[in-house]
Amino acid sequence: MIKSVRGFFVILITISFISLSFVGKDTPTEGLTIGDKAPEFKICGEKQLIDLKDLRGKYVLLSFWASYDAPSRMQNATLDYATRKAGNVEMVSVSFDEYKSIFNETIKKDRISTSNCFVELSGNNSEVYKAYRLNKGFKNYLLDENGVIIAKDINASQLASYTK
Q: What element of type H or E holds 80?
């Protein structure tokens, strides 16, 4: 009787391990990875509409951030300055603040270039947020001329090495 119970537990544990190895295989993990094609999106600011497709042929740095997230906000400001100095990278900065007034005050305080700086007032319910899988935190993505991700979560010094 003990041998049959022991055998039953061995089979049960084996089946559990096998089934656990398949859990979540179809579910995307955090963010996109290098080599992925960046999801297309259009976003409208106060002065302009930007379509990611229109930026093909250039390096594009997508920076996702929010004023309430200090690390992403600081990284966004640093990268904005670096891309203005570099000149060969187009930065698209997307904030997920849910209040336009907070967004406006933040870009003013951080001295962010407003030419390609946008706010997605839907916050984490927006299609862009979902497409880039930002539920594990804000990220930035460097895209090549074809819209393929060549780097992610880079800092200003890394940006220069990728775009030379």
A: helix 70-86
| Cα dist from 91 to 8, 113, 142, whole Å | 59, 9, 9
pLDDT surpassing 70 at residue 18: no
Selection from 31, 14, 1 nearest residue 153 by Cα: 31
Whether this prediction's pTM lies above 0.85 is answered by: no
| Separation between Cα atoms, residue 121 and residue 94, nearest integer Å | 10
Mean pLDDT of all residues in 113-120: 89
Q: By the 8 A CB rule, do 54 and 145 touch?
A: no
Decide if 132 contacts 139 (C-beta within 8 A). Answer: yes
Q: Taking 60 as the threshold, does the pLDDT of residue 89 lie above it? A: yes
Gap between the Cα atoms of 67 and 94, Å rounded? 11
Interatomic CA distance for residues 147 and 164, integer angstroms? 17
Kindly calculate the radius of gyration of the chain based on its CA atoms and give it in whole angstroms.
21
Interior angle at CA 112, CA 44 and CA 40, nearest 5: 35
